[in-house]
């Protein structure tokens, strides 16, 4: 290297794609002819701020350099497919540490429910017949093992690995990692599903009678609790990007709930029959739902649109789980299949035939592991390329020491998000409340001797972004489509009027039993 | 001099004579002039000295003034006066008359202007630095920092010097200094001095204690007189000081005056003078015997008490809502607590003030009455009365003012509401237009529904010829709207209308027939009549048209081929239709009406084509119809085609073959169940729910009509149209929804009041557009989101100060450009492409020149 070269060190160029990933959209309008900021000094200041923002974007894009790990995957030889590899084959071919992660526990106490901590280090398992165990599953060090002498319906870790919640026969109990009962939550009655919202410190539960409840575990206060009126809540997951609960019901509807309103925020008709399982991608982009009619659908949950993909499988899928890298695991009976998403379809990746029917399933974060709870035990499967290889120590650290844990807990408490902010749009807080603002401006307009402010109310985010037009255009299109459809119907009817006029014979009405009539008859009766 | 006096006397005598006659003459002349009777005012002052500075008679101009040369004339050219005349002339030459000084304000103004200019120029030099500091992202105070730069090692070493030989020798010569420090003497003072000092200290202490005791004693004295005297003395002293100050230092005097005023005001503010005023004292005297005055006094005292009462905030209720049950209980107990309960809330105080005003009003009236009846008033009262009168009147005025204000505000609110309600209709033009669209959309549908009905009625008559039918359809389209209208008009509110305006084509037929069945005979008869009438009309028209068209047709036939014929045909039809389209104006939007006509035309032509095809090949039409029917399936618009995944089949673990059979059975059962519930109208139900939700979310029209207001009241009285128009606030019909184009998704769009509390609802200063403000807060600043460096940069405070360092104001040193070479940074030279090109060009040019020279 030449020492005489004084030129500033050239930094590595950042690809536009990466920049776009971290870019936060267009900045303040400071162009000479269109800016709305009059004061020159402030304009200068804002310009400097914009420069800092741009630099920040670049810096953040540069930090990707530090993400050294990359997830791998199975690659099949010629004439083979990855789906044919058995767990045993994989275990034989991987290093010993990875092989040690694949294990099976044969347990007695009924169907098992499992839950991993957010850093993927600890596992809690609860058997229907009262068996609860918490362990560091990597070292296989058992933290506690108890039998609560009641039926268990779900288990969930709280924000740290020293506390977990167990939904028992009547109430929800909180235990510490030594198995000591810390709390008994009698307001959560006959709970079937538990979810922990880590950033809000909320323990959410769905009950047999359809009650949803949110408990703030940091202050021990119930945020809200009400009847969702969807019947028994058997399917409930959280959307990690906005902390909204997705509840699937028997009518095929997935409804999204926040603790702030007793009505759902949104409802999606996903299937025509009971929703059997529901899983949301960790980035909050996709939602996978399955139904008893053997269909699996993938939805765009940000737009609340879809289905993006619709599949029919050969047996109804009972459990779904997304991994951090976007792999989707489906459990049907005792078969577990993992799918990878390629360009515009899902490709089968792994297949595993468990010994017993799978009753719960979760990908372990930051590990290439899929944990399954079955009727007779718990096992963890190696799914190469399923875990995020780079962990963020400030976010969740799998190798956390005790002091780090304490520190992280305090920090997390300081960064706690209030439950009022749970809504469909997670960045709503960064937006101006335009209606109230408009009202305020209107009020000032009525005041004499007060010059009304000239304010541009146009929001930064337009609603119909990327659609190539506003809702109006879409609507007119829709109207036109409908018009043309009606017209064709009319036209055809007129051409076929003699054939159409033949009378349909009145069918006998069986009331509710009509549904059991053959299809052709049914249409006529309707 | 004697000569001169004699001359003067002579002159005087002659002048006197002259002046007398002259004055007489003047008088006579002035007598002639009757217009001016009043003489101009003259000022004269008898003076002994003749001087230009003395007042002269006005009206006499400058030429009468005595000038120096007049006086000097007498000197003449005489030799002994020569010097004087010379001097005079010299002075005359030298003299430069100063211009008249400007008036003071003008002079001041000029001074100010010049001063301003200069200062401005002077201050300009700071501009650069100030703008730099203002726009700086962060400033570190003190701004002028000594450079922390460390010297390079070579520089540092340079400071040390090797000793020369001479120096070494000198050092050797010099005796080594003892490095022992001199011990400081512990007893620096002599005994006597110490004693003296002690005595001094004791004296001072004693004096201090005396003074303290005296002050204490004086403070303890209860005599008011004593204090008054003292205070007066003090005030006198202060006044004296003030006067002295006024002479010596007027600014300080002003400050002092301010201070004095302030102390007085503070004194008045204290509660000491609650009952020491003249009015209060007189009342006190009379209070012994008079009940009224006692009351008044008590009232006054209570006023004072109330006004000095501390406020208690009344927003407890919110806290209660937010808080737990426990604090609520505490609060309840607090309320019972008499000690805390004593504190009055704002509303109570308001109430009290109101009552106080009322009291003053009454009092005022009474006093007035008293004034009229009896004039027995003390001086105090005389003084006080006007004051009192003033006060309540002012209060009254303000009260009334407030009242009117509040009334106005209420009105305003109402109007504002109304405006707000109306506003969406104005602002959301697109939505209203959308509404139009939908209504337009509906109307063709209506016509269709009726059209169908009528076609059935008219099928026999019309179906014979194709073009005839086309016309008929067109006609029907237009006429049916009219007919619809006719039906609507007589029977508003009956079922028929609802039926005609509903959506579904098939259902309408049903409903129509049902209605015909259900409705009264008279109604159906009427309708039948109407329809019959319409039919006749239509048929007449058709006949008329037919004739026309057949004429056209024949003409066209003779002229052109069949293809071109069709086109012509279209046009002709269109011509014919246009006339009828005019009739529709009141019902339909014209633009879309035409569209509909066109559509119809197209459809009709298509229809014809289809029919032609049908004539040739019926099966083809069937196929086509089938395919189009498949297209109509709404599921196709929503669903994408499901793919089949070849998954593994789970095996039931329970056991052997017989169980397998069972599972098959189970599968079958499941299939049956699934088939049974497959079309269980979940979709329909959901859509209905969505529709309901949409309806619920739509704001409803607000009816502000007051029944019987300005009209007859009672049962079965219709609200007039005017009233409907005026008092029913209409809401925009089709507000855009987020789930509009999303298919089977309902998004409940109630605005979340909880998140609104956290959202910004007012733009901070430099921003006047929402977009800009939102852009300014777009970047996350936490260290979880951005790199550490950027995080630090983003959260850097705009001003940093170092603790314990004196921040001195800027001085002019900052303006001086320091050209220390060390601070200069290396600026890399970058050659732009253009510059490069230029350079290359010049080089080339030079080369070419050289070549040319060669």
TrEMBL record, chain A:
Provide GO CC annotations from the record: 90S preribosome; small-subunit processome
**Which keywords label this protein?**
Nucleus, Repeat, rRNA processing, WD repeat
Asked if the keyword tRNA processing belongs to this entry, the reply reads no
Each WD repeat, start to end? 268-302
For the keyword rRNA processing, the answer is: yes
In this chain, the stretch annotated as Disordered covers 489-526
- According to the entry, every stretch annotated as the BING4 C-terminal domain falls at 348-426
Q: What is the name listed in the Swiss-Prot or TrEMBL entry for this protein? A: BING4 C-terminal domain-containing protein
Taxonomy of the source species: Eukaryota, Metazoa, Ecdysozoa, Arthropoda, Hexapoda
From TrEMBL, chain B:
The source's domain of life comes to Eukaryota
Write down any Gene Ontology CC term: small-subunit processome
Q: Tell me, what is an example of a GO biological process annotation in this record?
A: rRNA processing
Q: What does the UniProt keyword field contain?
A: Nucleus, Phosphoprotein
Main location (coarse class): nucleus
Keyword Transferase recorded: no
Localisation per UniProt entry: Nucleus, Nucleolus
Any matching Pfam family: Utp14
* Similarity comment text for this entry: Belongs to the UTP14 family.
Can you say what this protein is called? U3 small nucleolar RNA-associated protein 14 homolog A
Organism of this sequence: Tetragonisca angustula
């Amino acid at each position: 290297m030449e020492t005489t070269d004084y030129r500033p060190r050239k930094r590595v160029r950042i690809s536009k794609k990466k920049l776009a990933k971290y870019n936060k959209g267009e900045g303040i309008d400071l162009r000479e002819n269109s800016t709305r900021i009059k004061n020159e000094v402030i304009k200068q200041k804002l310009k400097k701020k914009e420069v800092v923002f741009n630099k920040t974007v670049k810096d953040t894009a540069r930090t990707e350099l530090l993400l050294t790990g990359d997830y791998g995957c199975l690659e099949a030889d010629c004439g083979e497919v990855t789906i044919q590899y058995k767990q045993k084959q994989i275990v034989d071919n991987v290093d010993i540490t990875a092989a040690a992660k694949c294990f099976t526990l044969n347990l007695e106490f009924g169907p098992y429910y499992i839950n991993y901590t957010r850093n993927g280090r600890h596992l809690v398992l609860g058997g229907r017949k009262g068996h609860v165990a918490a362990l560091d599953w990597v070292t296989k060090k058992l933290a506690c093992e108890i039998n609560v002498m009641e039926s268990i319906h779900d288990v969930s870790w709280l924000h740290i690995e020293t506390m977990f919640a167990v939904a028992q026969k009547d109430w929800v109990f909180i235990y510490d990692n030594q198995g000591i009962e810390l709390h008994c939550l009698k307001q959560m009655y006959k709970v079937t599903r538990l979810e922990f919202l880590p950033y809000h410190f909320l323990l959410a539960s769905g009950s047999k009678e359809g009650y949803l409840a949110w408990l703030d575990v940091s202050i021990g206060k119930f945020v809200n609790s009400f009847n969702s009126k969807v019947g028994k809540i058997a399917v409930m997951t959280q959307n990690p990007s906005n902390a909204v609960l997705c509840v699937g019901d028997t009518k095929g509807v997935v409804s999204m709930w926040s603790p702030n309103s007793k009505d759902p925020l949104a409802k999606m008709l996903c299937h025509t029959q009971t929703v059997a399982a529901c899983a949301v991608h960790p980035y909050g982009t996709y939602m996978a739902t399955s139904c008893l009619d053997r269909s699996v659908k993938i939805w765009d949950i940000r737009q609340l649109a879809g289905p993006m993909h619709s599949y029919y499988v050969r047996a109804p899928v009972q459990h779904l789980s997304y991994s951090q890298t976007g792999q989707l695991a489906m459990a049907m009976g005792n078969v577990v299949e993992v799918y990878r998403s390629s360009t515009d379809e899902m490709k089968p990746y792994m297949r595993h035939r468990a010994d017993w029917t799978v009753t719960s399933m979760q990908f372990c974060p930051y590990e290439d592991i899929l944990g399954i709870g079955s009727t007779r035990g718990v096992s963890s499967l190696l799914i190469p390329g399923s875990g995020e290889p780079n962990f963020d120590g400030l976010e969740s650290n799998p190798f956390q020491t005790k002091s780090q844990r304490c520190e992280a807990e305090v920090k997390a408490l300081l960064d706690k998000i209030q439950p009022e902010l749970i809504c469909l749009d997670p960045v709503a807080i960064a937006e101006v409340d335009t209606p109230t603002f408009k009202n305020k401006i209107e009020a000032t307009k009525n005041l004499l001797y007060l010059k009304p402010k000239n304010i541009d109310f146009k929001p930064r985010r337009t609603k119909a972004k990327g659609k190539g037009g506003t809702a109006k255009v879409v609507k007119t299109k829709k109207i036109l489509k409908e018009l043309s459809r009606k017209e064709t119907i009319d036209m055809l009817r007129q051409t076929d009027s003699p054939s159409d006029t033949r009378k349909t014979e009145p069918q006998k009405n069986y009331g509710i039993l009509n549904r059991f009539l053959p299809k052709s008859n049914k249409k006529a009766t309707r | 001099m004697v000569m001169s006096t004699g001359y003067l006397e002579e002159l005087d005598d002659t002048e006197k004579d002259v002046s007398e006659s002259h004055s007489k003459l003047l008088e006579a002349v002035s007598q002639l002039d009757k217009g001016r009777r009043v003489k101009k005012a003259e000022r004269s002052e008898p003076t002994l000295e003749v001087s230009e500075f003395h007042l002269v008679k006005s009206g006499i101009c400058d030429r009468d003034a005595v000038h120096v040369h007049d006086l000097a004339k007498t000197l003449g050219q005489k030799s002994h006066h020569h010097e004087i005349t010379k001097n005079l002339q010299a002075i005359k030459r030298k003299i430069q008359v100063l211009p008249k000084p400007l008036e003071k304000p003008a002079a001041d103004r000029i001074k100010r202007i010049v001063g301003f200019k200069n200062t401005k120029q002077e201050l300009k030099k700071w501009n650069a630095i100030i703008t730099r500091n203002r726009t700086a992202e962060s400033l570190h105070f003190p701004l002028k920092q000594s450079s922390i730069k460390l010297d390079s090692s070579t520089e540092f070493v340079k400071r040390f010097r090797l000793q020369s030989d001479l120096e070494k020798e000198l050092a050797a010569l010099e005796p080594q200094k003892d490095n022992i420090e001199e011990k400081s003497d512990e007893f620096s003072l002599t005994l006597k001095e110490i004693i003296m000092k002690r005595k001094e200290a004791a004296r001072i202490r004693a004096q201090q204690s005396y003074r303290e005791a005296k002050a204490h004693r004086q403070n303890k004295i209860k005599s008011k007189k004593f204090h008054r005297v003292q205070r007066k003395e003090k005030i006198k002293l202060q006044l004296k000081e003030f006067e002295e100050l006024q002479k010596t230092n007027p600014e300080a005097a002003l400050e002092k005056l301010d201070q004095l005023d302030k102390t007085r005001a503070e004194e008045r503010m204290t509660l000491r003078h609650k009952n020491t005023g003249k009015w209060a004292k007189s009342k006190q005297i009379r209070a012994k015997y008079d009940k009224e005055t006692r009351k008044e006094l008590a009232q006054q005292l209570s006023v004072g008490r109330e006004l000095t009462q501390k406020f208690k905030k009344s927003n407890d209720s919110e806290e209660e809502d937010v808080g737990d049950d426990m604090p609520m209980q505490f609060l309840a107990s607090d309320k019972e607590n008499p000690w805390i309960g004593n504190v009055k809330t704002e509303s109570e105080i308001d109430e009290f003030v109101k009552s106080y005003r009322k009291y003053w009003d009454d009092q005022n009236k009474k006093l007035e009455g008293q004034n009229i009846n009896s004039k027995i008033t003390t001086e105090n009262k005389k003084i006080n009365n006007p004051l009192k009168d003033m006060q309540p009147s002012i209060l009254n005025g303000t009260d009334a003012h407030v009242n009117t204000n509040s009334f106005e505000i209420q009105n305003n609110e109402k109007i504002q509401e109304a405006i707000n309600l109306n506003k969406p209709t104005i602002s959301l033009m697109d939505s209203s237009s959308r509404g139009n669209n939908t209504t337009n959309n509906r109307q063709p549908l209506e016509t269709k529904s009726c059209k169908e009905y009528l076609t059935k009625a008219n099928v026999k008559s019309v179906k014979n010829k194709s073009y005839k039918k086309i016309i008929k359809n067109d006609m029907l389209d237009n006429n049916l709207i009219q007919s619809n209208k006719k039906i609507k008009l007589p029977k508003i509110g009956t079922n028929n209308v609802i039926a005609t305006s509903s959506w579904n084509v098939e259902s309408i037929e049903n409903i129509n027939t049902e209605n015909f069945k259900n409705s009264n005979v008279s109604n159906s008869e009427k309708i039948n009549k109407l329809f019959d009438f319409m039919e006749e009309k239509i048929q007449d028209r058709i006949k008329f048209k037919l004739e026309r068209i057949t004429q056209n047709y024949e003409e066209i036939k003779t002229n052109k081929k069949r293809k071109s014929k069709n086109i012509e045909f279209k046009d002709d039809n269109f011509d014919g239709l246009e006339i009828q389209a005019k009739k529709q104006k009141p019902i339909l939007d014209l633009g879309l009406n035409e569209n509909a006509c066109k559509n119809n035309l197209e459809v009709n032509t298509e229809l014809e084509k289809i029919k032609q095809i049908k004539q040739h090949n019926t099966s083809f039409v069937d196929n086509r119809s089938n395919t189009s029917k498949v297209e109509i399936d709404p599921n196709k618009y929503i669903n994408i085609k499901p793919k089949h995944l070849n998954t593994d089949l789970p095996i039931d673990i329970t056991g052997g073959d017989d169980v397998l059979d069972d599972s098959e059975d189970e599968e079958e059962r499941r299939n049956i169940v699934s088939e049974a519930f497959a079309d269980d109208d979940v979709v329909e139900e959901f859509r209905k729910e969505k529709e309901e939700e949409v309806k619920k979310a739509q704001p409803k029209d607000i009816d502000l009509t007051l029944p019987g207001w300005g009209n007859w009241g009672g049962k079965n009285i219709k609200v007039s149209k005017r009233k409907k128009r005026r008092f029913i606030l209409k809401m925009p019909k089709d507000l855009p929804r987020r789930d509009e184009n999303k298919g089977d998704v309902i998004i409940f769009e109630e605005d979340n009041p909880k998140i609104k509390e956290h959202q910004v609802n007012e733009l901070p200063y430099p921003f006047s557009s929402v977009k800009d403000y939102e852009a300014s807060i777009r970047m996350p600043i936490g260290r979880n989101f951005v790199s550490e460096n950027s995080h630090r940069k983003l959260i850097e405070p705009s001003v940093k100060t170092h603790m314990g360092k004196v921040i001195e104001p800027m001085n002019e040193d900052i303006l001086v450009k320091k050209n220390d070479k060390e601070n200069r940074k290396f600026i890399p030279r970058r050659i732009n492409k253009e510059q490069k090109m230029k350079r290359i060009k010049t080089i080339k040019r030079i080369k070419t020149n050289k070549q040319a020279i060669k």
